[in-house]
């Protein structure tokens, strides 16, 4: 946890560092307010508390700065940012982390600034992408420390852009709970503070959260303690203590997504290994990683070429009208039955639009004829249409095969599986870097469009998010090349699909469906995935108590919010007038706090709506007669 007070920056003169007088969580005694004295902003001015000062909190603050000249002028306002980590980057994007860890997007695809493609009521305030700001090659994958620096700069620029009567205070600690009724001021208790912060409004931009262990993880952890094993539960890899994973020893790793990529990097290059071309030269300090998952393969590589030509006109079959119809159904909707067919048709439209317009030589009929029949067809009719119009099966979109590439694949030995998985990785790299397969890039655009629409449906369950990440949010190509090199060096071993873990006879044991009957034993197990906190299992006491006191939650355990502006709902569906929430802990979660330029950014739309609702509330509150 960061313990350094945030001092005022030259470009952010209206920011103050606000600290508790009581002992700080780390035991230090920062300067600032004193016992019994009010916190900054308690002297009668309106106050807004934002809990979470990472990218989402910074994005909300940017929208406040953009909308304040229109909606809130002359009344004065204190904005309190509560976060133990530095504003801008927050925990995940803090500047104090390994330089070996990269962003998962090209620098040209990362922005914190809106543009005219964002459907919002507030003004567009242009700003640079990461690659423009850092003078990077647009196709480079910047390290996360540089992204943290960019986010800090965005925060400082935003604070400087606020009207002169709005002041920002950063409290480098955690918020513990919120009190106060619907009609009065809110009270936000802070860790280490003797007095709560008074607030007219509270916005929770908490970001990704830690979770208490579920039943399976509790059992594995207890077994590890009883038998002197190593068990690392789901966590943010950069925060995991990897020292217990000893050189040369086998380590079972469950999870093949981005958390695994970080783990792989920290246990190889992070321990002194290096790459010479396509070859990995071990340092001798690496463990041997045995990795598997439900799919048994890594996420698809990032696409390694630029888009050219006409973009598919999206949304087409899954847009606001369809979302509105689904929300209005009296009996609700089922994702697989009601939503997925629309999503599948939308992604197929993006795929075939690109194939027919960019690669017409690989089709048998004119696009206009195909488009007409595709638009009016159902599942079976579309499959027949595609079979007749697209001769090569490799040019047809098969989402089921993409989702589970090892279904039905069987190998007779782990050695055979290693060869097969290296070939799979090579094939994926070749395809994702070849513009002859630009239909993949069109499907990526379709996935972004669909994600933006799904935000309006609230909690749709976890399946979609995993599917989206597998296809659209995979690692940079160089990381997959490193996987291949580590496999050839014997540092990385593949376990295949359907991975299961058991604990017996003093060890952990992994098995899977790709090599029937085979098992691998180890004294260490790493769960390479992010925690999945619910409002009941989150380690965040504020969110847990909010739920205990009556805030509504979805079946997946997400905090329920009003999709219009992010106000927190109670269990009767009534929005709290003074409490808002944005981010992955809510059922209005988007695909990220920052996004590609010119893609409509759902998070930007949400930030703008919440900022405007908050400013209007505070303005009207300030205009009420007193006495």
UniProtKB/TrEMBL annotation:
Amino acid composition bias (Low complexity), ranges on this chain: 16-35
Residue segments, region Disordered: 1-49, 575-605
Name of the protein: Adenylate cyclase
Extent of Polar residues compositional bias: 1-14
Organism the protein comes from: Streptomyces fagopyri
Pfam hit, one: NAD_binding_9
Stretches assigned to the FAD-dependent urate hydroxylase HpyO/Asp monooxygenase CreE-like FAD/NAD(P)-binding domain: 49-208
Source organism, top-level taxon: Bacteria
